[in-house]
Design brief:
By secondary structure, the chain is an all-alpha fold. It has helices at 2-25, 35-91, 96-113, 117-124. Helix 2 (35-91) packs antiparallel against helix 3 (96-113) and helix 3 (96-113) crosses helix 4. It is elongated.
């Protein structure tokens, strides 16, 4: 929503400066309104237009590249999830809980991708996955203790 406010503000500012320019044109002495001055202003405006077109083209190109990369990642995730679900189905009814968990996880991921903030927090929150231990280090909940740091 803030982007819309900025866009409207820039549009109004541009319109206002244009009107100011039309007003100030009357105050410019006639010697500054020669054909050479007008040609120079036209050339500078053409150069600025070209630079603006290059910048906008680069911006659109990078946005499309990001979108295409995200789309490919989501398509790959969906295909691999379907393959995993089919593999679970082949193992029989004992994998029904895994299939249900996979379906729930994929639904949360879809909701998070579509912009649901609560689903994003639930799906991508790492606080429950990597709790801190007593001595300040972090480890995974199901990983066994290693070496001299093992619990006795």
């Amino acid at each position: 929503m803030a982007n819309a406010y900025v866009s409207v503000a820039v549009g109004l500012l541009t319109f206002g400066v244009g009107l100011l320019g039309l007003f100030l044109q009357r105050l410019v002495p006639e010697r500054h309104m020669s054909a050479g001055s007008r040609d120079m202003i036209g050339a500078v405006m053409g150069l600025l237009s070209l630079l603006l077109a290059l910048v906008l083209g680069t911006l659109v190109g990078s946005a499309y590249g990001f979108f295409a990369s995200q789309k490919a990642d989501v398509e790959s995730l969906c295909a691999r999830s379907l393959e995993l679900d089919l593999a679970f189905r082949q193992y029989g009814p004992e994998t029904e809980a895994l299939r249900k968990a996979l379906k729930t996880s994929m639904q949360e991921a879809l909701d998070a991708i579509e912009g649901d903030a609560e689903a994003y927090r639930r799906h991508f929150q790492l606080a429950g996955t990597c709790p801190s231990s007593r001595n300040g280090t972090t480890r995974y909940p199901h990983s066994p203790p290693i070496g001299r740091f093992s619990r006795s």
